[in-house]
Structures are given as C-alpha cells and as structure tokens.
Design goal:
This protein is 21% helix and 34% strand. The chain is of the alpha/beta class. Bound molecules: flavin-adenine dinucleotide and FE2/S2 (inorganic) cluster.
Length: 352
C-alpha cells in the first residue's frame, strides 16, 4: 500500500506492507514522522485521512478519545487497507541527529532478574544487531499478549549490539505485568521468544552537542537515563560538562540501580550527581551511609529537583524527563516556569 503524508512544508511517501501499522512502516526510513509513545497513548501521531481506507489495530487505544472527527486516526494504531493520503500538522523536517532506521526483529529473553518489589530487569538477545541512541526505546511484543509495550533501553553501546537491556515495573492491573510478574512465568522467562520493533524515540542524548544535563526520572523512567548517563561519561572529560540525575521512588525498598548509579558517580569523579528522592518514607541513616556517592532527599522528584538543581543549572542545560505522565507534567511545568528552561531544551518520554 502506498502512503502519502503531507505536513507543513514537506511531504513523505512510503510503502506500507499488509497488516503493518502505518507509523511502523514509515519509521523504517522516515524518523521525522510525528510520534512519541508509538503505542497508542499520547496522541502525537494524529493524522487526518484525506483519502483511502484503514482499520484500527487497537480500537481501544487511549489516545483515540482525543480525536475530534471520524476522519482522524493515529498513525501508530492504524493499518492501511488501501493506498492512503494523510495530513499531519507537523513539519516533517529531518533532524540533524542520526536516528537509526527501525524494524521488527525477533528476540529471545536471555536474562531476567528481580531488582526491587515489582521491578525486574530483562535482557533480550536480538536475531540481528542494531544501533540505538541513548534514550531510545523498543516496542516489545509477547506471543500471549496483544499489542506491544514500549520499554527504554538501559544499556549504552557505541556501535552495534544484539543485546538490549530493560527494566520493567509492574503496573497494577496491567495485562503484561500480570503475566510477567506471575511467579511461575517469571521463573521460566529465560529462553522465551519475543518480537521487538525499534529502535524508536526522539528524546535522545545528542553526543555531538555537549550540554550540562538535568535528568528527572520517576521509577522505571530511570531506564533511558542509565543509557544517557553512560553515554555522557564517554565524553565528559573532554567537554567538562556535568550532569545531575533526580530519581524519584516511593521508599528505599523501591530503589534500584543504586550500585550502578554509584559506579557512574564514581567513574565521573563526581561530574555526575545523583539525588534519590523518596516521596513516601525517608532513608535510614544506615541506608544513607551505605551509598556515600548518592545524595538523598524527601518529596516528589520534581519538587526535589527545583530545590536542588539551581547549583547544577547553567545556560547550557538540557533536561531529560521520563516516567508516569503526572511526574513528567509536573517536572515540565517546574522547568519551564520556575527554572526558565527553553522548551526546546526539555526532552521527555511519558510512560503512559
Ligand atoms: C516511550 C515509553 C517508554 C517506556 N519505557 C518503559 C520502561 O523502560 N520500563 C517500564 O516498565 N515501562 C515503560 N513504559 C511503560 C510500558 O510501555 C507499559 O505501559 C508497562 O510495561 C505496562 O504494561 P502492562 O501491559 O502491564 O499494562 P497495560 O495497561 O495492560 O498496557 C500498557 C500499554 O500497552 C499498550 N497496549 C495494551 N494493550 C494493547 C493492545 N491490545 N494493543 C496494542 N497496545 C496495547 C498500550 O500502550 C498500553 O497503554 C514506557 C512507555 C513509553 C510510552
Ligand atoms: S505515537 Fe501514536 S499515540 Fe503516541
């Protein structure tokens, strides 16, 4: 099927295979397509259908409720049934960043570990090597569960790799969460086959544009930050830049990656600062003493960031945010209105 998309000032044309979502077909060569979550929740891939017919891959996609008329669709949730002419509002301009092309790749789970209550890490070996940018994610499908789940890579590799690491948080009532966190399923995850689409995501670390970083993460929002900070570490001795991560969890028992974060702070010779914010109960003295390279505070992570970031903010600051939508919205407001960061310097992934 031929897909023609017009945006302000530019048009795109690509082929969409049978049964493929329009966004996924387009992303193999056109990273400038408008999207954020790639999984039907954010609405940023909204398009108007000018001609042709299509079907919904997931008619219940949450972002569908924000569409205003029957001729509007979500690129990430629609399958072309004929040639399609579509219109989008965005500019469709190519970024200067070297976004790798995205595709479906088969994979196998080769490691699964419990990191904290309701949090696990997964390592997937892909049948083909990929190159991904720090901060990107993949949409992973399990045979038993309909639809894919977006997960950010926690690892950082300069070249190609066929192994991608994820950290996954149990979502109460979530379909895949119920499956993955079942004790019997978890015990037999290694060796299980999955299918993944990617790499995708535009909230990436730009290695060619040295900035001071402020990263704000809630829960597994820290996933992409792990990759970004590892990439930052590769260059910071040359650039002299610094980075701070504000990582919010409810209680000390919910925190994870503490040893990995300690290692990053140590390797950076404290050019990276990590502040863990507990919203529900503070850390004990013993806990604080155990992690001498990490700072602790109490409260919601965006409030803690506002209290603590001033000393780390410079005119060259770029912010990365990831986590549940209320956290990202709160942090966005604070960074724009209180910290006066320019909107173009704030990149984010909302996990829902
Ligand atoms: C950019 C991005 C990065 C993310 N990174 C992470 C991460 O690193 N770690 C993490 O734990 N979570 C991450 N998330 C959240 C994650 O994608 C899931 O929401 C989470 O794993 C819960 O899945 P669930 O099946 O338990 O919940 P559910 O509520 O059942 O499903 C969650 C999401 O899966 C998709 N979905 C559900 N059913 C269908 C269907 N039938 N067809 C198509 N799609 C469907 C939808 O997007 C839905 O919102 C990220 C989300 C985004 C958008
Ligand atoms: S990219 Fe399609 S709804 Fe988010």
């Amino acid at each position: 099927m031929k897909i023609e998309i017009s945006g302000t000032g530019a048009n795109l044309e690509f082929e969409c295979p049978l049964e493929e979502r329009v966004l996924y077909a387009g992303l193999s060569n056109n990273p400038q397509l408008p999207y954020e979550c790639a999984t039907g929740t954010c609405g940023s891939c909204k398009a108007k259908c000018v001609s042709g017919s299509y079907e919904w891959a997931w008619p219940e996609a949450p972002a569908r409720k924000n569409l205003k008329s029957d001729d509007e669709l979500l690129l990430c949730q629609c399958i072309a049934k004929s040639n399609l002419k579509l219109e989008v509002r965005s500019k469709l301009v190519k970024s200067h960043l070297p976004f790798p092309s995205a595709d479906w790749i088969n994979g196998q789970i080769i490691n699964a570990e419990n990191l904290a209550p309701g949090v696990m890490s997964l390592r997937i070996r892909l049948a083909q090597s990929i190159h991904f940018l720090p901060g990107q994610f993949m949409v992973v499908e399990f045979p038993q569960i309909s639809g894919g789940r977006a997960w950010s890579m926690t690892n950082f590799v300069e070249g190609n790799t066929n192994e991608v690491d994820f950290v996954i948080k149990m979502k109460p009532g979530g379909l895949l969460s119920k499956h993955l966190f079942d004790t019997n399923v978890f015990a037999s995850l290694c060796g299980k086959s999955v299918r993944a689409f990617g790499p995708v995501g535009k909230a990436v670390f730009d290695q060619g544009n040295a900035r001071d970083l402020v990263c704000i993460a809630g829960g597994t929002g820290v996933a992409g930050m792990m990759s970004i900070l590892q990439a930052f570490l590769k260059n910071h001795s040359k650039t002299g830049r610094k980075a701070s991560l504000y990582f919010g969890v409810r209680t000390p028992a919910d925190a994870f990656f503490m040893n990995e974060l300690t290692q990053i702070v140590r390797d950076s010779k404290r050019a990276v600062r990590v502040v863990v914010a507990f919203s529900d109960s503070p850390a004990s003295k013993d806990y604080i003493a155990k992690y001498e390279y990490i700072d602790f505070d109490e409260g919601f992570v965006h409030e803690v960031t506002m209290r603590q970031m001033e000393a780390w903010k410079t005119p060259q600051t770029r912010a990365y945010l990831a986590g549940p939508p209320p956290l990202v919205d709160g942090a966005l407001r604070a960074l724009l209105l209180q910290a006066k960061l320019a909107a173009g310097e704030i990149l984010y992934d909302k996990f829902g």
